[in-house]
Amino acid sequence: MQTLAQLQTGELAGATRVKLSCGLTQVPSEIFDLADTLEILDLSSNHLTHLPADFARLRNLRIAFFSDNDFEEFPRVLGQLPRLEMIGFKACQIRHMAEDALPPTTRWLILTDNQLTALPASIGACTRMQKLMLAGNHLTQLPQELAHCQNLELLRISANQLTHVPEWLFTLPRLSWLAISGNPCHHPPAATTDLPQIAWPDLTLEEQLGEGASGIISRAFWQKQAESGQEVAVKVFKGEVTSDGLPQDEMQACLRAGAHPNLVQVLGKLDQHPAQKQGLVFELIPAGYRNLGGSPSFDSCTRDVYAPGTTFTLAEALSISGGVASAVAHLHAQGISHGDLYAHNTLVNAAGHALFGDFGAATVYDRANTALAQALEQLEVRAFGCLLEDLLNHLAPEDCAQESAQQLLHLKNDCLQPDVKNRPTFAAITERIAAVARTVVSQ
Hints:
Layout lengths: L3 H5 L8 E3 L20 E3 L20 E3 L20 E3 L19 E3 L20 E3 L20 E3 L20 E3 L17 E3 L3 E9 L3 E8 L7 E8 L9 H11 L8 E6 L7 E5 L6 E2 L22 H20 L2 E2 L8 E3 L5 E3 L6 E2 L5 H24 L9 H14 L9 H17 L1
Parallel strand pairs: 1-2, 2-3, 3-4, 4-5, 5-6, 6-7, 7-8, 9-13
Antiparallel strand pairs: 10-11, 11-12, 12-14, 13-14, 15-17, 16-19, 17-18
């Protein structure tokens, strides 16, 4: 992060990236001295309420973040920027967006946790849109024009006031990651679980293992009554709306998921937290597991990234893809759409065993609604196709020409086909991968 003094003294001349968080109430005029070079601007966590007309001078700006500011209207001047493709206004107070406010070049738009009641019809002109994050607003419907965004891949519309989900949404050829829980139109069946309540005093917290948008995960020792204790992982929810939706919806999906060898196992619900926070207790993941991939970058937008030199043997690709497909087939059998089927939410060990988790974007649905159940599964099949494509793109060179690899390639193409209704089910995917694995073992 740079300082305002550096900007004002000219020390940032020629900069391509600038990040300022210093209580700004207006955009410093010196920013416009960087108009020829500035590509990424982050003015998050200030007190901005508007952008000046001069902002249109930033003709090379590609990425702009204004989260945690005091905007009540989406700045119309952004619509004049010819190269702007990623825009973030998370946790502001935006109530209105004018018809000409969005640049048609937009690929990634973050409006999580605002007060929008409607989207402009002009959003349909953003035909490059791939990632649209709208959780935690007051939207009652989606504009029909959004159907023109045929490149849309990730959509977060949880925790709104949507009265229905339009049928055209499930025909978008590239939509792969969807979160729709927490809306009036969404009536999930009641959770049925016999998981125990685990009292906070019975847990001794140790080091923090990680922190996500919805909560903090820590290692803990669980002292069971009249039994020896065990090491566990405890997730305490923050209770705030996240980029994916509401923590209580994540909790419901976790509890409903049940046991599966390729799912991170929930042991119980947290009880008697001193701050009355909700939480879950999980089995501690054994040592030796690592993230299969990294989260998407600015450039990759919706696709995970992998460290240079990453390779998978055919046996590893079969084990990982088969385990994930089996886990997701199990989830849909329980009426759960994961919504975030990604390599970065998958842990693997040296043997290629996969553990799938993170239910922050999950949607619990009624399987009796067969049309919705089929639509959600076929949509998620495309997300699996992307993961399988990643594995095949990093396949060890000596395995690429094998017939078994070609069979996985055909499966990947079936999962990614734009005709949504012709994609295979997860049950069929699991069986096809198992058949390929049997062939490899027999050779």
